[in-house]
Amino acid sequence: MRPFAFYEPDKKTKESKVKTKRKRVIWLDIAKGIAILSVVLYHTGFLPLQKQLLPIITSYMLPIFCVIGGYTYTQQNNHIIFFKKKVKSLIIPYFVVGILSYLIWFVLISISNYQIIKLNLQDQFIQFLLGKNLIFNGPLWFLATFFLAIIFFNFIFFFIKNRSIFFQVGLSFFLFIASYFINLKKIHYPYSFDLVLLMVSFFIMGNVIKNYWRRITKKYIIGSFFLLYILLSFKNGIVDVYGRLYGNPIYFWLNAVFGSLLIMYFSYFIYKRKLKINIILEYLGKRSLFILVTHWPIMQWITYVLNSTGVLELINGKPEIASFSYYLPNKYIFTLIEILLLVIYTIMPILFVVMLDKSKKCVLTSVQV
């Protein structure tokens, strides 16, 4: 399954009955690798200098997936085939991984003493069917909402593709504002349908970036965007897309676009220089979907092990509702054990994916992004 279509057409032509092969765009995989690493680091709860780094990270870490999706999108002539493909690549994984996560979570709460996560099992399963408030695997909501967004974008693409940049940017901003006002009360609707408009807004901006890439990636323009991004990030603070916590909505929308563009540009920059880190980031990008939907349960189980061994008591850790983020007495002074926990919570989900890759029958071939 290739839900985000991060591919370029193969130059070789074949018979009409054979589908054209596509190859991955390495520098976009690198960008997705940076994005998914940012998501994991954010969810650890142990990121150093959080007050300084989280406003920067949270502005781009989810919108960039939609921006890249719009950048790599190609017009689909058969909407039915496209729909079936996205069901296979997004909805089926949502239910398969969701059910497995639910069962694993059931085992966890059965053997642990975390009163805070002993929620009603039936209510949680209903929430799973509605695609919201998934305590057993929070990031799963993204799959269902992304599915609705890509289908919507697919239907409107023919209408907007030849329009001016002013029309496309204006439509993008309008959809964002519509999403914002639809949910001023920050209600978690089924499948986050209000966030569908937000995602489509970023899909459109991804297509704009693609069409004007050469013009907007001049050094003085990128430099200006970078300064604006840093300024607006600190002015707006930490954002939470799923929680509908945007701070100043205009600052958020601008920063989501600027941040995504900057990460893409940086990825292209380091790709051209063939740095060794590219191999790691490219791998993370290729497996970003699977890392997204597995790191949350893995972190919950890490917490259980650390709690059982007395490590949490050592650092005065208090599990929050997700059971793996903590209130720490000091966010600026990080002890060796806290840094070690940051590494453990970041590395273990990645090692899990690597382990599956090394298995005799790789189960990840069907969930590549």
What does this structure look like?
By secondary structure, the chain is mainly α. The chain has one domain (7-285). The chain is 66% helix and 2% strand. It has 15 helices and two strands. The chain has helices at residues 26-44, 50-60, 63-72, 79-111, 121-130, 141-160, 165-182, 193-211, 213-216, 219-236, 249-272, 277-286, 288-308, 311-314, 336-358, and strands spanning 7-9, 22-24. Strands 1-2 form a two-stranded antiparallel ribbon. The chain is globular and about 60 Å long.
Short description:
Helix content is 66%, strand content 2%. With 369 residues, the protein is mainly alpha-helical. The protein is globular.
- DSSP strand content: under 5%
The major beta sheet can be summarized as: 2 strands, antiparallel
Average pLDDT for all residues: 84
Tally of helical segments: 15
Structural class label = mainly alpha
From N to C, what is the helix and strand string? EEHHHHHHHHHHHHHHH
Number of domains: 1
Q: In terms of per-residue confidence, which ranges show pLDDT below 50 for 5 or more consecutive residues?
A: 1-21
Helix content: 55-70%
Number of strands: 2
Radius of gyration: 21 Å
Secondary structure layout plus pairing:
Layout: E1 7-9, E2 22-24, H1 26-44, H2 50-60, H3 63-72, H4 79-111, H5 121-130, H6 141-160, H7 165-182, H8 193-211, H9 213-216, H10 219-236, H11 249-272, H12 277-286, H13 288-308, H14 311-314, H15 336-358
Antiparallel strand pairs: 1-2
